[in-house]
Design goal:
The protein is of the alpha+beta class. It has a domain of 59 residues. The chain is 44% helix and 20% strand. The chain is built from four helices and four strands. It has a four-stranded mixed beta sheet. A hairpin with a 4-residue loop joins strand 1 and strand 2.
């Protein structure tokens, strides 16, 4: 499936969708902040570069977002660089 990721300038983050129960299940919206993409994944500057960096690292980012969703399905999911340090992803 093609990436659904977009950059949200006002939030300073890339928004993406995860499907914890497969594509026939719920579509959950999550975000990863710009700082995490730079610090953890060495994203270059620029909106399209941030989305591309998400796409290139979607497996680990989506895995962490899915884990956060499973911990608390009612909480908003916005990943920060410290989330990756604490989780080992």
């Amino acid at each position: 499936m093609p990436s659904e990721a977009i950059f949200l300038p006002a939030a300073g983050s890339v928004q993406f969708a995860i499907y914890p129960d497969g594509y026939d299940g719920a579509r959950i919206i999550a975000r990863i902040d710009e700082e995490a993409l730079h610090a953890r994944f060495h994203a270059p500057d620029g909106e399209s570069a941030l989305v591309r960096t998400y796409d290139e690292n979607a497996d680990s980012i989506d895995a962490l977002a899915t884990a956060r969703y499973r911990e608390n399905p009612r909480a908003a999911i916005c990943l920060h660089s410290t989330d990756f340090q604490a989780s080992g992803f």
